[in-house]
Design goal:
Elements (H helix, E strand, L loop, with lengths): L1 E4 L29 H66 L2 H10 L7 H21 L3 E8 L2 E7 L14 H8 L5 E6 L11 E9 L6 E10 L1 H8 L8 E5 L5 E3 L10 H19 L2 E8 L2 E9 L6 E7 H4 L1 H47 L14 H41 L2 H16 L5 H16 L5 E3 H18 L4 E6 L8 E3 L4 H12 L6 E10 L2 E8 L6 H6 L10 E2 L5 E2 L13 H14 L4 E7 L3 E9 L9
Parallel strand pairs: 13-15
Antiparallel strand pairs: 1-19, 2-3, 2-6, 4-5, 5-6, 7-8, 7-11, 9-10, 10-11, 12-14, 15-16, 16-20, 17-18, 19-20
Helix pairs in contact: 1-5, 1-8, 2-3, 8-9, 9-15, 10-11, 11-12, 12-13
Amino acid sequence: MVEITNAAPPKKAVPPINAAPPINAVPPKRHFFGLRSKMLLLFSVVIIFSNSFLLIFSVTRYSTELESNSIRQSDQLVGSLVGNLNEYVQEIEQLTQVVKYYYYVQDYLLRRAGRKQSSLDAESQSANMGVTLLGNIILARTDIASIFLFDDKGIALYKTSQLDLDTGFDFRSQPWHRDALEKPDLVSITGPSRQVYALRNDPPVLSFSRAVDSYDGTGILGVVLFDVNLGTIRRTCLTAKPESDGFVMVLDENGGILYHPTLQPLSDTNAQDSAASDCKALLPSLAATASGHFDALLGEMRYQIVHRTMSRTGWHVISATPYSRITEEARGIRNLILVVGFLCLALVTGVSIVMSNRITKPIVQLRRSMDQAEHGRLDIRVPVTSRDEVGQLSESFNGMLERLDGLMKQVVLDQEEKRKLELTALQHQINPHFLYNTLDSIIWMAEAKDENVVPMTEALAKLFRISLSKGREIIPLRDEIEHAASYLFIQSMRYLNKFTYRIDVPQDLMGCSVVKLILQPLVENSIYHGIKNKPGKGFIEIRAWAEEDNLMVSVSDDGIGMSAETCANLLTSPTGQSSKTSPSGATGPMDGNTGRISGSGFGVRNVDERLRLYFGNHYGLRFVSSPGEGTTATMTLPLSQGFQAAP
């Protein structure tokens, strides 16, 4: 058994092309945001964003670094100042210790307290030696204003730089006296305060007081008091001047000013009152930690405050730096970045304009060519000036236009060929010979009063009605089956007892769309070239079934069949070769062995070509045949979901 198919590689069917506007039609203007403008906008946004990010990041990071450096420098300064002040306090404490344990001081206080046998000469000698010690200390230390020794009777010994002294003043009522007796093992530091025992308004002093206990452990003999002026503390603080217009100050544990660069302690001025108020406001933050830093307003200016608290005295040593000075360098960096950013923006904008023109010019030219092609100018070509993506796109566009132009011409030729085939198919359906024989049979049956004359006339009417189909080329499979059934009925009446037929088509396939007049040529071929020359009675069967996405329709007969050569040439023989005409309208040389058409009959080749024109080259006809065993013609069509009428 030989199976022949005339299938070719699939090719997409080209849809009909609508009429194009005149070639010289001017494309309408389109208003849009062009690629060049987008590139300029993009570059500008990137530069502005990057500069802004760089500015914010750099200034923030630099400001943070400057602040950290300022804190480190201020902390080192404060630490150094705290160390110097601690050394100074220790020196004064050691001097109080010297006085406390000096032999003649102890001897004099014991004799005054009656705890030691005394004589006038011995007591006077001890007093003179004690005063000499005190005088030597004051002479050696200009910062010590006065040294007093008190016992229960009052002033025991003293040495002072004050010329006017109230010796009757009740010293025991002073805070430093009480603190010294309550904490005999420690030096009590109070002030700064005025020397209330002085008759003149001298500068304030710090009071260092401590209890003087006896060698023999019999108890406290009295209190020693050192009144120290603030000159040494001021000089110490002046040597620790911070950078960036900052300043240092020293406050006592209650917020009193021990040192301020522009103020004198206890001065009665408005500036003093304002500074004291600011210093009092700092106390909560200063008391929170022994050391650290924070921001604060002093007057109307914001300062960075770095502080340490002296553990021995409770004094707060503070370095204050204006934030305006800290961030001054950061502002300079910010201004520099802004200037550089604007210069970069201007430079990049200029470069972007030049580059965007070079990049977008071929694209603009390609777009204009596309607009012209859209309006029918398929002969337009884009000049290729580069080998980049735009150049490759231009080459592809030119190739597309060439192929599209060729396809349009091919579509025109295919449409003309299709109309010719349709007209020829219709002309062959209205075969004068077939019509004459059928009408002659109807007349004969009418004269013989045969009861089949009416059904035969109806079948002929259906045959021609479906052939016309109101000018439609696509009809439902139901109508095509009815057309083939009418033709089979007419032929079965003409050739009585020559063949029988059967039509097996599922009902759910009856609505599928098919090209009209595709079954009748195959049925005619089976009758005239398969069964007519067969001895005895033949059988013809029409079947339809679905196979994947295809509709399969076959016409089979048990006629004389054909040779492999004839079957192979049935759909490929040139139409212009010399041939005889078959009753079906097919042309081709006759096969001497079978009497069948050995070339391409017009009817079957017409069916195959029409199927390919309508649905594509992967659809069409195929034949399976063997001599003496019959022939099966199978059509492959697309399986439609429902009939859709075509004009």
